[in-house]
Design brief:
alpha+beta, 3 helices
């Protein structure tokens, strides 16, 4: 009788151990997949040359004006049903919204430092991130954001380098108008864009 109870007790601990082991392994696999850095799109290095058939001019804009344009573009052009997000320019660039973590909505704010590339594209380097009360590495949080965020094809996210690149040389409006960046000085509210308009 004692031997039978002993076997039953051993079986109970055996199955309990296997159950806990499967949970731990499953969690580790999920975390490793989330931590694996990946890139959506690629930063474009092509330098845009103005076509002779285009009218070229430069505009100077404020952060408030660009924020309104970006908000309108997100509302009208991006049907983002996965994650609601905002992108604004203040003392820093800020991408904010919510993502799902363990089936819960978690608010985030990703702060970025803008830089004009030689080809007129815009690069944003992540400097810090706020994710509720959680202390998450930037690359890990950017992976979560990227996996749930629907962004245009001309936006490249490199979670390994912790940068977001706006490939303006791949972004065209319906009328053929396109842009390159010339200067972005958030502190002095001085943003200058080169505008290329087809001369029809």
């Amino acid at each position: 009788m004692k031997e039978k109870n002993k076997k039953s007790s051993l079986n109970y601990w055996k199955w309990s151990f296997l159950f806990l082991l499967s949970i731990v392994l499953g969690t580790l696999i999920w975390l490793s997949s989330q931590l694996t850095p990946f890139i959506q799109g690629e930063p474009s290095l092509t330098i845009t040359e103005s076509d002779k058939k285009e009218i070229t001019f430069q505009i100077q804009a404020s952060k408030e004006e660009l924020n309104q344009l970006v908000t309108n573009y997100i509302d009208e052009e991006l049907s983002n049903k996965q994650v609601a997000f905002n992108f604004i320019l203040d003392q820093e660039a800020q991408l904010s919204g919510t993502f799902q973590l363990f089936n819960r909505d978690v608010g985030f704010s990703l702060f970025l430092d803008p830089f004009v590339m030689e080809n007129g594209n815009l690069q944003f380097k992540a400097t810090r991130i706020s994710v509720g009360a959680l202390d998450l590495p930037i690359s890990f949080a950017m992976n979560l954001i990227k996996s749930q965020l629907k962004v245009p094809d001309w936006v490249a996210i490199d979670t390994k380098k912790e940068i977001i690149v706006f490939n303006l040389n791949e972004f065209y409006l319906k009328n053929g108008m396109h842009f390159t960046a010339d200067k972005i000085d958030l502190e002095n509210d001085d943003i200058r864009l080169n505008v290329f308009l087809p001369n029809k």
